[in-house]
Amino acid sequence: MLFYDSPNPAPNPRRVRIFAAEKGIELSSKEVSIPKREQKAPEYVAKNPRGQTPILELDDGTVIAESVAIMRYLEAEQPDPPLFGTTEREIAEIEMWNRRVEMILMPAIAAVWVHTHPFTAALPGRNVEWGESNRPRVVEGMRFFDGSLEGREYLAGSAFSAADILLLTTVDFAKFIGLEMPSECANLLRWHERVSARPSASA
Ligand SMILES: N[C@@H](CCC(=O)N[C@@H](CS)C(=O)NCC(=O)O)C(=O)O
């Protein structure tokens, strides 16, 4: 199988790299350069019509897009250590936090990135006003996660999980585009230090 990857700061491929590192899985990978727009090349779009990275191409030619779907494939292939939970409660809680990262924080950060950042200035359909209006939503989102991390080691409880990977890659990408974690978000900052110290975080 072949993993189509893009280097940092792209957050979605990084999710999969961290996930694989946590499981000790070595993925054969091929780099897709976003600055060179290789994700929009016809041969890549034939594999993923969304024209985005990452994808995982299986040996039978099946293409799995969407970072969380790839993570789930790897979890099913190699269940240990479990990163999507094993009990009904863990599975549901990790899913809940994954969805909250993707629905609360990611869209606001993506709006600032796509509509205001100099690196995306050439994209069609930019709306700077809309991008700017999302900055407070990012802060609000980070405060929500800060409050949620009160008294807990990891986002979904006492064990490191896929939810931590989603939040880590999201706040690191936010930082890359100038959206720092607010200094008063002590729980979030402590959590960030903890998960960033894991060897997988360098992926
Ligand atoms: N929901 C998708 C998002 C994929 C995505 O937005 N990928 C970014 C890289 S982090 C990308 O390919 N951006 C270039 C583009 O959209 O043209 C996932 O989780 O994999």
Automatic annotation (TrEMBL):
All residue ranges annotated as the GST N-terminal domain in the record: 1-82
Residue span, GST C-terminal domain: 87-203
Pfam families linked to this entry: GST_C (PF00043), GST_N_2 (PF13409)
Name the UniProt record assigns to this protein: Glutathione S-transferase family protein
PANTHER family registered for this protein in UniProt: GLUTATHIONE S-TRANSFERASE GSTA, GLUTATHIONE S-TRANSFERASE-RELATED
UniProt cross-references to PROSITE patterns, sorted A to Z: GST_CTER, GST_NTER
